[in-house]
Amino acid sequence: MLKKKDQFFVTGIDTEVGKTVVSAILVEALGADYWKPIQCGDLEHTDANKVRDLISHPTTTFFPERYLLQAPMSPHAAAAKEGVELSLGDFVPPITQNPLIIEGAGGLMVPFNEKDCMIDLMEKLNFPVILVSKIYLGSINHTLLSIEALKRRAIEIKGIIFVGEEHPTTEEIIAQQGQVPILGRIDWLAELNPNSIKKAAQNIQL
Hints:
It is built from seven helices and nine strands; from the N terminus they run E-H-E-E-H-E-E-H-E-H-E-H-E-H-E-H. By secondary structure, it is α/β, with parallel strands linked by helices.
């Protein structure tokens, strides 16, 4: 039977906010397995490969992607270029008794097809969500909108991980208005390697 303890779906408030690095840190912190349901573009160095290169935990299992799509586009557009139609029923989480990190693609409203978005997959899989929030102008709005959307679907939010330079006023107002736990903040890492990931993992409170 699938164990949900320490198994999380990692999503972001936007694309390119640091989900893959945060996923590597969480895999390291938990000694977790890893699954990326769908990879769009960069197939020679997928997000799974990036995480594999960044962690030092020796027993992590990397489960294969359900879809590998060539174009670095939204899943619905990348799939259309290859004549593939994505369906939520295509995505079945791997069964493992270990902690598991599932990394999404883009943000909550990234479409899979004409009717379903990433948030629909989160709702279907029913894992607690860890939301990655990069600090930038507009990130308060994007973060609070993401929190509101998740709460509207009654999707459990494990908490937020901030990425970037410390910005107390931004972090405090998000914590106050969002009413979700803050799991930590990851500074910009000058070097990405197993040592820096292991050190960053010490700053995450799960």
